[in-house]
Structure formats: structure tokens, C-alpha cells
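for the record, two folds in this file. i put them one after another cuz i was lazy. first one right below, seq on top, C-alpha cells after. the second one comes after a little note so u can tell where it starts
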Amino acid sequence: MIKNIHWARIVIAGFLVEAAIFAVFIPVFVLLGEQPGIYTAVLASFAMAFLFGMWVGRRIESRFVLHGMLVGVAATLVYIGLSFAQPEPWQYIVAHGLKIVGGALGARVAEGRKRKATAQRETAAAELLKE
């Protein structure tokens, strides 16, 4: 089971999720203040994990949802490491959960796209064989 997991892509995606969240959070925090910054971080947690879950899902062949969830877990672990595991507002706990859900959904979307593309190729090949 473990040998079919693309750990390098998961770890890279986890770091990129956190970098992207900070890239959105910092300007909002500076311009609008702490409360809008916190809620922006929560929304960005889901969105960035979704996008990078899709990115990981583009290069894999199986276990899409697991890969996406691991992207969210990796991003959460990166954040915990950066914050030295300090106590967090409850919204950040929710954000960590949303990273896992977002990563899973993003990878699931990638799976659906991959299956659709494969089906279209197979249909096109069948049409060519009929001729």
C-alpha cells in the first residue's frame, strides 16, 4: 500500500498549500486586520488544498482521494511546524480539517477528469477501428 503513494508530490504540495495560504493571508491581514485575515485563511485553506490536490491527482493512477487527503495532512503538519505547535484560534482547527477535505475533493476532481479523458480516447479509438 505505501509503495504506491507519491510521497514527494504530497510533501511538495503540502508546502505549496501553506505558501499559497500565506500569500493570500498576509495582504488581507495587513490591509484589513486580524478577523478578516483569520477567515481568509480558513477559506484559502480549503481552496489551496483543493487546487494542489488536483495538481497531485493529475500525475497519479490510483488512490486519488487518499493522495488528496495526505496533501491536506502534509499542509497541516507544515503549519504546525512553522507555528511551533502553539495554541490556535478555533478557526484554524477548522481550516486544518478543510485542508484535508479540500485536498481530497481536488484529487477526486482530477480522477474524474482523468477518467473522462480516458473514456473519450477509448471512444475515439473505437470509432477509428470501425472505419
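(here's the note) second protein begins now
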Amino acid sequence: MKQYSAAVSDLFRSSKQYREERVLIRKTAPPAIPAGGLEATADVVRFHPQNAGIYEAQAYPSADFCFDLLEAKLLAPHLGLAPPSQVAPRCSLPPEKLRGFRS
């Protein structure tokens, strides 16, 4: 978050979910984009999924940025923390511990 100077956040609540929308403002201006880069980037943005919560398009990204993105999304997508389980853990007790217990 150090790269941002300000943020605006809205929290929306419904009966089944919370939804947050954020706008982040960078501290420094992005580098100058050569002529034609903005139009090409705008053309690419048209293809993002309509249900995407977050998307990013960059004009002339570095080769390292592209490789890191391909590695994280395609080559090794399961690195990092596992998603939280939606199922409670089971408790296994030996039969002698269950005597007198009824469900």
C-alpha cells in the first residue's frame, strides 16, 4: 500500500454478503506511454470478463512483469495459501470413548 497516496472505500451490505469497492490513487504518475499505446490498451480492455471484480491492463509492460504474471496464473497457480475450508473438521473417537453417548 506504500505506492498509494490515498484510497476511497465503500462497503455494501446485503442479507447474504458484504461487498467492498475501492479506488486507489498512486503517489507517482505512471511513466509516459508512447503514441498508440493507449489505444491498443483500450482495445484489450474491451475483452475483460463482465463479472471480473478486478482487472488491470498495461501498455508496454516489462518482460519480467509478463513472465511473473504467466508463472503465477498459468505455470504454478497453486503456490501460496490454500483457500479456507468450508467444511468443519471431523472428530474421530475410538468406540470405547463413545459408550453412553447418543446423538
